[in-house]
Structure formats: structure tokens, C-alpha cells
């Protein structure tokens, strides 16, 4: 009897909590509390729609919308891009003006509410894989310029695939609780005493470009740890490196020009070459920023609180000899890699093939290096296409582990720790 009563009490509490949270969800998504939505009829109508759309195109690129809403080779902004998370897969939505599968029936207020409060046209919570936790800081004018541009593009009928999430992450109503705890619905405000360039860079990095969504570690609830802003994180099998002002673990030792080169060209000699998700950011977004915005972004990053952690700029050399498998790795490198990368690591036909100085080759776990070897990489920037083929099908897990460990040892001076079993896991993270 006592056990039965205890079970009944527990069930009752669970039901009560669910009812309360559901009520809270309905309340918060229906009444977002966003004062910027309260405008008279006709307010915000642009005097020059053409100019607004042109500005919206620039902002849409700066916000990197294409990387998440365009499948490679597919229609622009038609959605369907999969995001593999620890608890399942989420697919991006169609943000063309299609009225059935896109946002064609969304009003200005609907669109603003989505970016400020994280809810769709019908008031349903959006998953924070959509970076509304950062976009909430955007101005209404910028959001409406983005909408004007998106509505000027060809309409595409493309329903998004159904998300595949495990319980309880498939319960959308619970996201309202997440929002109550972690979503700070505030617009960006310039910091007094900071330069105009710094404030512009802060807006680009924290709101429009949402750098923290990838480069900031997350807590157990998958919310950004703001006390560790831009200290580096790992997602979908890739490392988003530390980009704080720390000189050893971040980008504090990079020159202004090196940072601008990396953002605008995807490559900074002796520092790094963008690939994977960061390559997409350069290709779809950063290369289109104006020189003044690039300078502003650098000005802001220069003053981001330094944080340690991640792959250091000057990692100590390995104290022990390379493992016996290194001979296999060397054979593979000479046979398949040296033609482009050279034994010196300087790169034969392009600077993008250089290996010396890269963080990816100083990482004993070879995280990003392995992803490039497995899946290849490509980057369309400044009118040229940088391409490296994938070797995932050509080599076994053991061979790729040996090759990665050799590159880490030969060019990064580190003791590679990658195993064949780890390579097998990384094959399925792409």
C-alpha cells in the first residue's frame, strides 16, 4: 500500500509539473514580452525597399544563414541541413518565402519574434540549434532587412525532414523552461567608453555572427558558459578553437593582418587554414565583410577576456619517440600527401596546403586533422576553389590513425594519441 501511494504521489507531482510547464510554455510563446514588437500599423515600412534588400543581403551573409539553411548543391535557404547532436539530429528549416514549407506567410512581427524570442509563427518553441540566444541581441531594423532580402529570393517548396531526437529532448514545450533560464532577451547596447569600431565588432561577434555558438563551451543543459566566452569547444566532431585574447591558447599572438587574412581568405600563413564548419563560415560569411567590419571584428576580439585551454600556440615537443606505427604513417604520407604538402609542410602549389604552424597538427588528438583526412575539405573564396579530396574510403581506420599521428609528430612535434577505434567513431560524425 505504501509503495502504491508513493508511486501515486510521484506520478501526481510529475503530472503537476508537466501541467505547470505546459502552461508556462503557452504563456511565454504567446506573450514574448518583447517590447520591440509593439508598433503601430505600417510602422517600419522602408522608404527604399531596394536599399533595404541590399542591406539585408549583407546582413544575411554576416549572419551566416546560408551555412545552416542551404544543403550543399541544393536550393539556397531551402533548409534540410542536418545537425548531429549528442541527443539526436535536428534539420534546419526552409527560410524562403514559400507559404507552405517556408516563411512566406510570416509577418514582420512573426519573424522578429523568432529571432528575439525563439518561437515560430504559431508560437511553438524553436530548438536553440537555431542561434536565437545570440540573435536576440539584433536590432529590429536589421532583422527586417534580412527578411526583406529572403523574401526577394526564389521561392522553394521544401518541407524539412522530421527531427530525430531522443526523449526528453523531443518535447518542445520544455524548451520554454530552457528559455526562461538561459535566454536573455535584450537588444545589443553600445558599451560607453569603447570605440565605435569595438562596439561594431562586439555586435558582429556576439549577435550577428554569433561566434560564441560554436566557440564557447556549453554546460550540462547545452547553454553557453558565458564566463568562458570564446574559450573553444567541440561540436559535430570538429574543434572550434579558443579565439580569446590569450597569447598562448587563443589568438592574442596573431597580428591584425593575420586575423584579417584568416577571416577574409580562410588562411593565415603559419597560423591556420579554415576547414570544416569554420571553412563554411569563411565561404558563406566572413569573406563578404567590408574592410571596416573586419577591422572592427579584430578590435573586439583583441579585448575578449583571455582564457586558457585548447591547443597552445607553442606546445612542448614530444619527449619520447614516435610509436612504431609511425613508419606506416610516413609511408602513407610520402605516397599520398607529400606531392601537395611537401615533406617540409610548406605546400607545393598553394599556401593553403601548408601544414607548418597549424593548430590542427599540434593537437595530439588530431581532431580536425582526422576530419579533413576522412572527409576532405573545400573552400570557395576570393574567386578560387581550394580543394582536398577525402581519403576515408581509401584507407582503413588503423591507416588513418597512423597517418594522423605521423603528421602530428612530424609537423607539430607532438606525441599523437589517435587510435583506430577513435577514427571509427569520427567516421560517423560528419
A few lines on this structure:
By secondary structure, this protein is mainly alpha-helical.
Describe the structure.
The protein is mainly alpha-helical and 430 residues long. The protein is built from 17 helices and nine strands. A three-stranded antiparallel beta sheet has the order 1-2-3, with no helix packed on it. Helix 1 crosses helix 7, helix 2 crosses helix 6 and helix 13 crosses helix 16.
Number of strands: 9
Number of H- or I-type helical stretches: 17
Low-confidence stretches: 1-45, 319-325
Provide the gyration radius in Å. 24 Å
Name the helix and strand elements from N-terminus to C-terminus, one letter apiece: HHHEEHHHEHHHEEHEEHHHHHEEHH
Mean pLDDT: 87
- Give a short account of the largest sheet: 3 strands, antiparallel
- Strand share of the residues? 5-15%
Q: What is the terminal-to-terminal distance?
A: 52 Å
Structural class category: mainly alpha
What is the overall silhouette? globular
Strand order of the largest sheet: 1-2-3
Portion in helices: 40-55%
